[in-house]
Structure formats: structure tokens, C-alpha cells
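Justification of computing resources. Each target in the renewal requires a structure prediction run like the one illustrated here; the chain below, 270 residues long, is used simply to show the kind of job we budget for.
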Amino acid sequence: MAVGIFDSGLGGLTVLDAVAKRLPEIPFVYLGDNAHAPYGVRTPDDIFNLTVAATERLWDEGCDLVILACNTASAAALKRMQETWVPAHKRVLGVIVPMIEALTERQWGDNSPPREVDVKHVALFATPATVASRAFQRELAFRAIGVDVEAQPCGGVVDAIEQGDEMLAETLVRAHVEALKRRMPHPQAAVLACTHYPLMEHIFADALGSGVKVFSQGKLVAESLSDYLVRRPEMLGSGTKSRFLTTGDPTAVSNRATQFLRRKIVFEAA
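Resulting C-alpha cells:
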């Protein structure tokens, strides 16, 4: 009954933590493609091919349902995967839509026409590839009108997190927030559209200042997944064991994961 969680590296662990707390009875198999991180500077074809390979590896672990806990993969590969590649008896879901549903206060499955919402000025922090895809803006337009989105590509942040350099990551986050605020001085909400960024959420919040509501994805994805599995329990796969897999060096990845999550994480070679 395992569910797969995929990310280009460590960021998806923020989603894994939330879904494991929400659904403690379900084993989760996590796969980080650390050997090829970061995805945010890769081409759409590269991202698609790497995400397909990782998804197939999670299917081998008995995970018929795979969550792309990677905004770049969700933005650049998910739609193509769903339309051209995923077989009828498998499911691959992303992490962008639950965030937008929370931002627009629309329930899962609400397919009514787009309408005005309270939040009018949104700061979007994402990888360069996610920003370039405009997937967030496209999905938002299905649900809301009159929302001004200012997107900031946060180059270097994922690399710093993957390398375990918290000081550099903080410096970069503050620089990117300042760059965005020069274009949108008073955002009402900020969306952390990369699952690595919640590891630095307190820095984003401090740099943005009080009065800006910060949306990150862990709890939102956990609630959406719980709701989905109530409606589609048959998508629980045959896997029975929780595991942490990486395409990178398991010892190095385990050490960095333990550093950032502040609890012992042991990865195995994928």
C-alpha cells in the first residue's frame, strides 16, 4: 500500500514529513534524484526524461501512486506525463494545484468558473524552470481572476541547500526577496513554489516582513493526498516498506538530510 514521493533532491522531504504525519498508517518510498539536482536549470526534455525514470523506479517499489514533490517536475513534466505516458492503472500527481486551491480558498474538485479572490498581489518564488513554465499562473487562471503575480526565479538556492550551505542559502533568499520587492513592494501573499524552500521558510518570512502570508506546500499536499486516497483507495500500491532512495551518494545525502531536518535520515542507493 506504499505511495511514492519524488523530488530532484532533498526538498521533497518537507512534503514527506507532512504526509507521513497526516497518514501514519501508509508506507512512503522517497526517491531523491540528487545525482542530477538541481532540475531548475535543466531543459523541459531533460526534466521530463529524468522524472519518468524516477517514477518508473518508484513503480518498481510497489508505488502505483507517485507524488511529484518537486515544483519544477510538476510544472515542466507532469502535464506531458499524464497526457502521453502514464498508464491507466497508475497515477502521478503534482504539488502546484493544492497550493493554488489554498491561495484561492477553493475546495478540491471545485470546477466552477474563475472568480475574484481576496488576495490580489502574490509574490511567487520558484526555480528558473518553474518560473519559465508559467504553470503557476496558468493553473491560477483556471480558479481566480484579477490576481497580480510577480515571479522571482531563485537561482542558486536549491544548490546551496543540496550542498548543506545554510549561510549561502540565507544570503541568496534575502537577495531574491529584495529583488522581488523592488518590483512588488507590498505583496499580500508569498508562494514558496519549490519544496526545498520550506527549509528556509523562516528566512523568507523575515525578509518579506509582517503582514505577508507565506504559503508552503507540505501540509497542503498532505491534506489533498488524504482526500484523494479517501476517494481513490485502489491507488494504494503493493509496497509495504518505507524507504529513502537516492541516485547520489547515500552517505552524503543522508548527512545533508539529517542536517536540514534535524533528525536521522538514512538513504539507500536507488
